[in-house]
Specification:
heterodimer; A: alpha/beta; Aspartate Aminotransferase, domain 2; 2 domains; seven-stranded mixed sheet; 17 strands; 17% strand; B: alpha+beta; four-stranded mixed sheet
């Protein structure tokens, strides 16, 4: 059952204790201690309504979609296509034809790289990314550059972990055919000025893809208001299952793109002489899709909007500010990524204690943080660090979680003398 | 979960003051080890005289377990021939992976790494330097690269 059913957009405070009861896994103990889960930026936990929707679908409605005239196939198709409509509303796309189900953000980016960029780009063309991207928003473009002879440009970041808009703009030119950047940085939590960046890139004639993996659980995303050409995100970072995500693309662009993978569901007719392709969105969904994942994703969107995304964001912002102050008081802690505009992520190092040792010591206290390069090696290289520890916040975290993090960090200092 | 078992005094000491750390002049075997999951990097330089490790030093950055393990390893293998190093490698492998490995007196200070086996996520940290050493000794006289993945 959802905790708070508040009207949309109502920024009333979150009842975090009620929210916690919606997440069964939070009752887990780790090494005999209560779980302090501060790794939602890697993967969030599942809300009970999501678990129930998935189970209900599996128990009562499962069959293959778009294939049968029997009752269950129709029920499954209705659930799957209902989920697509739910996503359309969540991101304010014009049409369900613009909502492609994918495995996750990584697949969404690869689809655009291979189906949009690869057939169009020529030697001398440029793709622009930023220096704080996740590997998933770097490597697919490097592959396209190798395949087409296009050139990858990188807009720099500053010591606070921000992408200065002027620097970004300076990298743009009429040669920029495509710009791809994160809405929110996974490694540092920086919120990018995406609307301005999109406008500037499109003004040069570039098509823009936004990696929204870290944004959808923390900010209202309106793809039309943003003006993005492509926007992609994962379900599992927003309380939905793994293996389901969304690629939004403007219909005009998707319609002009060749299919990415071939198989069932993406065709109209097949003969050995000639195959014709299905309409959008089926054209990009070859094979049996992750139906229960889509159902879970729709339930997660209901849940998140039930809480109120603004209320969730305000709650997380409070925890981020509290943790920033608390960790800032510890002389041996250095915060990495101090952008003026941040969301839900606190990356840090501890003097004399490597991030992996920190991860193990915190885990012994039941505190789960991510340690390592966060799939953003160039960011680590920029700051001259092999790794950082990263605490990330979600709707179910509390001030007590921050206090437990601080106590566990003090213990780490004791262990290392 | 006993952190003291993992972070014994010997480990903390070798992490803080790694022995045989830095470049090695006259090295004739070299290998680089990477743990791509954590970003740990280790470069081993060995000066082999015939079949014997005359000198060995390491550089790089890693966690306390990987730094201490490399430091302890360089102390343990210096002066040994290939066959003895291979034997030691097998003993260390057993120590890190077999849940009830008995105390092995032949390991000396290296036995301090026994706590690692209670922390499966950290076994690779301790074994990286040993795999790197294997690669360095196996390469004819050039440079090799190993990865824990």
């Amino acid at each position: 059952m959802a905790a708070n059913v508040s009207p949309r957009n109502a920024p009333r405070p979150l009842d975090v204790e009620a929210v916690r009861r919606d997440f069964p896994i939070l009752a887990t103990t780790v090494h005999g201690r209560p779980l302090t889960y501060l790794d939602s930026a890697a993967s969030s936990q599942r809300a009970r309504p999501v678990l129930e929707a998935v189970e209900h679908y599996e128990r009562h409605s499962h069959a293959n979609v778009h294939r049968g005239v029997h009752a269950l196939s129709q029920a499954a198709t209705a659930a799957f296509e209902g989920a697509r409509e739910r996503v359309r509303r969540f991101i304010n796309a014009v049409s369900v034809k613009e909502v492609i189900f994918v495995r996750g953000t990584t697949e969404g980016i690869n689809l655009v790289a291979q189906s949009y960029a690869r057939p169009r780009l020529r030697p001398g063309d440029e793709i622009l990314i930023t220096a704080l991207e996740h590997h998933a928003n770097i490597v697919p473009w490097q592959m396209v550059c190798e395949q087409t002879g296009a050139h990858l440009r990188v807009a720099p970041i500053n010591r606070r972990g921000e992408v200065p808009f002027d620097e970004f703009q300076r990298q743009l030119s009429p040669r920029t055919r495509l710009a791809a950047f994160a809405h929110i940085s996974n490694a540092l939590g920086t919120v990018l000025p995406v609307k301005r960046m999109i406008e500037a890139a499109r003004a040069q004639g570039a098509v823009v893809l936004i990696d929204g993996a870290q944004a959808v659980p923390h900010a209202r995303v309106d793809v039309r208001a943003l003006g993005a050409d492509f926007y992609t995100f994962s379900g599992h970072k927003m309380y939905a299952p793994t293996g389901i995500g969304v690629l939004y693309g403007r219909e005009e662009l998707l319609a002009a793109m060749p299919p990415w993978q071939g198989g069932g569901d993406m065709i109209l007719t097949v003969s050995f002489e000639k195959t014709t392709y299905n309409e959008l969105p089926a054209k990009f969904e070859a094979g049996t899709p992750n139906i229960s994942g889509a159902v879970g994703l729709a339930a997660a969107m209901d849940y998140l909007e039930g809480l109120g995304i603004e209320a969730v964001a305000a709650h997380e912002q409070h925890l981020l500010e509290l943790a920033t102050v608390e960790l800032g008081r510890m002389p041996q802690i250095e915060l990495v990524g101090t952008a003026a505009h941040k969301a839900a992520v606190l990356s840090f190092t501890m003097k004399g204690v490597h991030a992996h040792d920190l991860g193990t010591i915190l885990d012994a206290d039941g505190v789960a943080v991510r340690t390592g390069h966060h799939c953003a090696m160039p960011v680590m290289t920029f700051f001259g660090l092999p790794a950082t520890a990263r605490a990330s916040f979600a709707c179910y975290n509390t001030e007590e979680d921050v206090a437990r993090l601080v106590r566990a960090l003090e213990r780490a200092r004791e262990v290392f003398g | 979960m006993d952190l003291k078992e993992l972070y014994r005094d010997v480990i903390l000491d070798h992490n803080r003051r790694p022995r045989n750390f830095g470049p090695l002049e006259g090295a004739n075997h070299r290998a680089e080890g990477n743990n791509p999951l954590c970003g740990d990097r280790l470069t081993l330089a060995v000066r082999l005289a015939g079949d014997r490790i005359e000198d060995i030093r390491f550089e790089g950055s890693g966690c306390a377990i990987s730094t201490a393990s490399a430091s302890l390893m360089t102390e343990a293998v210096k002066g040994k021939d290939r066959a003895s190093v291979r034997q030691l490698f097998e003993r260390i492998h057993a120590l890190l992976t077999q849940p009830d490995a008995a105390a092995d007196p032949a390991l000396g200070k290296l036995a301090a790494l026994s706590g690692v086996r209670e922390f499966p996520a950290r076994v690779k940290c301790a074994s990286l330097c040993w795999h790197t050493l294997n690669a360095a000794l196996a390469s004819p006289s050039g440079a090799a690269t190993v990865s824990t993945e």
